[in-house]
Amino acid sequence: MRRLLILGGTAEARALAEAAVNELGDRLEVVTSWAGRTDRAPDVAGDTRVGGFGGAAGLTDYLRTEAIDFVIDATHPFAETISEHAHDACVTASVARLQLFRLAWALPPSGRWLEVDDMAAAARTIGDLGSRIFLTTGKQTVNAFSDVENVWFLVRLIDPPAEPLPLANCEVATGRPPYDLEAERALMERHRIDALVSKSSGGALPEKIIAAFELGLPVLLVAPPPPPPGMRVSHVDEAMAWVRTQI
Q: What is the CATH number of domain 2-101+227-245?
């Protein structure tokens, strides 16, 4: 029996695990791992594990101890650290690795948007866009905006924060994707949002971006980090075709 480790936490990872278990479950053990940064665990086919590995060395030990035959990195495009660790660990352990990545968004030419390199650049740019900002870049990035002055933030989080956010003036809105387009539009209108800040995560264009464009709001996008070297595909079907070659 071959063993596949999926580095997950995304919808693509869940779809891949389901496809692999349904088609190849009699010949393949599928283990999906995710960081566990939110309170609710995703419903994933096959076996699961939660939490970090302890860096590249810890992941290397896991691959060897658990007799993992091949790995698919289907993490979020901004999960830079685990992707780098996966590359290094698979090289060290001589384990085949594939990256399942999202294609960049196809943004409408009529939309008002600007892409910057990182969160620090986004923080420097926000003041030019307005004084009421919808910040949807996630809990791990909020500190980057702590020094921004004269801006009120509506911060989108999946779970309520355990302690106050390091922002002088903000309100938290919690919720889980997928979001409703009408609800996103109403949220921005109710809070008189001037601009939206988002990670440029790729895949299907999310409702928040569509709603912002429909309202004529500028959208500030933070570009994803470059992926580590290695073979990459952009669809679950392509990843499944690769899996079949490994069995």
A: 3.40.50.720
